[in-house]
Amino acid sequence: MWGVIRQKTQSIRPAFSAIRHFSSAAKEITVREALNTALDEEMSADPKVFLMGEEVGEYQGAYKISKGLLDKYGPDRVLDTPITEAGFAGIGVGAAYYGLRPVVEFMTFNFSMQAIDHIINSAAKSNYMSAGQISVPIVFRGPNGAAAGVGAQHSQCYASWYASCPGLKVLTPYSSEDARGLLKAAIRDPDPVVFLENELLYGESFPVSAEVLDSSFCLPIGKAKIEREGKDVTITAYSKMVGFALKAAEILAKEGISAEVINLRSIRPLDRSTINTSVRKTNRLVTVEEGFPQHGVGAEICTSVIEESFGYLDAPVERIAGADVPMPYAANLERMAVPQIEDIVRAAKRACHRSVPLVAAA
Amino acid sequence: MSFTATKFAPSPLPLSSTTPRSNDKPLSFSFDHSKANPSSSSFLGSTRKLLRFRAPAKPRSSSPVAAVLLQQTSNLLITKEEGLELYEDMILGRFFEDKCAEMYYRGKMFGFVHLYNGQEAVSTGFIKLLKKEDYVVSTYRDHVHALSKGVSSRAVMSELFGKATGCCRGQGGSMHMFSKEHNMLGGFAFIGEGIPVATGAAFSSKYRREVLNQADADQVTLAFFGDGTCNNGQFYECLNMAALWKLPIVFVVENNLWAIGMSHLRATSDPQIWKKGPAFGMPGVHVDGMDVLKVREVAKEAIGRARRGEGPTLVECETYRFRGHSLADPDELRDPAEKEYYAARDPITALKQYLAENNLASEQELKAIEKKIDEILDDAVEFADNSPLPPRSQLLENVFADPKGFGIGPDGKYRCEDPKFTEGTAQV
């Protein structure tokens, strides 16, 4: 069960590339503020949007994402629910059937397991089963992925789980810009969206342009973002791992390797075009994810590249993922179980130099 | 929205046990309609403005447990030995959690740490009546249940430190205390998750006795969970099956009135949880969870019922946590008057008083117990501190009971046969 709102000591600094389309590093906001303002603006713009979940109201959100919204929109639109994921997720789906736009907060996505029937069977399939008569414009959002020191049940990534289900859109913001633009897109979208945030990023600050801060700002669903351009190796990542990949790219740059970092932003739909275009340029690919390796996001990306750009690959695809074990509690084991920056650096070097003999990875 | 606040108005929460004692202090919560803001919406969350803590004006004389089938026990008195045992267990629970807070702030433990302070009478009152073969299934607030069940302070403290000597070798952590030896079937981190597991443990006892003809399979399972869980479907599903199949289980609700920052009265249409027992055909009991002797009395009967094969019981223990939901909960929503009210009813103080008033223990004897527990905990911390971290190789262990599940390596052999696998240097 949820316990702590805490800032991780390890800081993930964004690296800035020239390709950012805004020039002046104007204002910085945290991911938490980005999510909060996005929710606020969408609720303000559309009275059909409401927020429900555990502790979203009086407690101001377990992670304070909904801070101030109860006071502003009242208890009719910011609903504290009992601890009944299956119940309130289903209620959200039913409300969406009939024209409302619910935003359902899971205190963490681990708890969405109790509601997965409604996410998969009620939300994702209704549009198809009803032959397009009933769409389900709902957002399921909350923190996802490895946290710190909370053991196996509270520390895992559900990106590939939900991304394997037709009918769902799965978004994974990294920066404040992502958080604002993608959450707004998710709320406006006519389909069910699984919106995977990361607890350890909530307190991170990122610079944002005036455009991002404008209430009309929105990002397209299904488009990846090239966070850093490069020519030697492509690194794909999402959520917190984008920060790690950018760090790795900095280290690699010092050693003369120019890495291109792709922030996937959307796991489903997956921006195969951006990934393949990049791989055709760099000829090497490293995929990074926090989740379990088998049947993961990296596996899907790898398949896409094999299918579309096989002839362009100069090295086997390298896949960095969480260890193939439930998350251990002990801090030293936990560190070994999640990807580290040095793992990415090592894999990129392997791809570039083939200096390490090929080991068949799991 | 046309919902009205009256829909959410509960009857006062009763607080009385099957056998009234002279120091009964009944309590009631009520909505204060006079303070309602007429302009505020009446939909769901709006009742927050109506909730006011009210200390009881006068004792209630009528027993609210009409549905209860428990027999009156004739004698409330415990023996000296029993009294000291209860006191020691409660002191262990309290001091252990205080030590956890200290160690957490010193950075020795991490993640989520949910402490049990204030609720000791429930763990002690129930678990100390169990046999070693009986099962306990707990929640994320599980340290003290494990201690009461007999898991050593060293093993629990070490687990919290993330050390190899912990009861789960550092793999489980604060919310996942398991001990097969003590039939502690785990702390479960999700709301409601433990209840079906506990019901399954009870099912296994019945199955062993009736299908496998193991006459001695008379284990009783205790499922501990909180008031928040009683709004979760798994609770109702399992009440039904447990009653349907007459399983040897006691559902112990530790109603501490708050699910993190959600008041029980704001979350539950009918806050009297014990009433849900009779709805499923099992006794429902409400007991003062701040009084270990009352808890013990009810527990004795419920456990006995289960052991005799007469089926499950639902026991609602009204209790209170003296700390926030976890060590990082700012705990801003609970009324100070409410906290004070319960602080004054500290279950340990109450037992101490009872022991003194009935000449069951001297001040020196109790002090000696406290000193002993202090020493046990100092030893546990020292032990945990000096214990080794789990070795790297441990990362790959225990994922499967048969490690061949890790699959076949490039050499065509099972990966677990690769020396690197046990060295912890295999690719994962």
From TrEMBL, chain A:
It is found in: Mitochondrion matrix. Its EC number is 1.2.4.1. GO terms for cellular component: mitochondrial matrix. SMART domains: Transket_pyr (SM00861). Coiled coil: none annotated. It catalyses: N(6)-[(R)-lipoyl]-L-lysyl-[protein] + pyruvate + H(+) = N(6)-[(R)-S(8)-acetyldihydrolipoyl]-L-lysyl-[protein] + CO2. This is Pyruvate dehydrogenase E1 component subunit beta.
TrEMBL record, chain B:
PANTHER family: PYRUVATE DEHYDROGENASE E1 COMPONENT SUBUNIT ALPHA (PTHR11516:SF60), PYRUVATE DEHYDROGENASE E1 COMPONENT, ALPHA SUBUNIT BACTERIAL AND ORGANELLAR (PTHR11516). The pyruvate dehydrogenase complex catalyzes the overall conversion of pyruvate to acetyl-CoA and CO(2). It contains multiple copies of three enzymatic components: pyruvate dehydrogenase (E1), dihydrolipoamide acetyltransferase (E2) and lipoamide dehydrogenase (E3). Keywords: Coiled coil, Oxidoreductase, Pyruvate, Thiamine pyrophosphate. It comes from Phaseolus vulgaris. It catalyses: N(6)-[(R)-lipoyl]-L-lysyl-[protein] + pyruvate + H(+) = N(6)-[(R)-S(8)-acetyldihydrolipoyl]-L-lysyl-[protein] + CO2. Its cofactor is thiamine diphosphate. It is an enzyme of class 1 (oxidoreductase). Residues 90-390 form the Dehydrogenase E1 component domain. This is Pyruvate dehydrogenase E1 component subunit alpha. InterPro entries: DH_E1 (IPR001017), PDH_E1_Alpha_Subunit (IPR050642), Pyrv_DH_E1_asu_subgrp-y (IPR017597), THDP-binding (IPR029061).
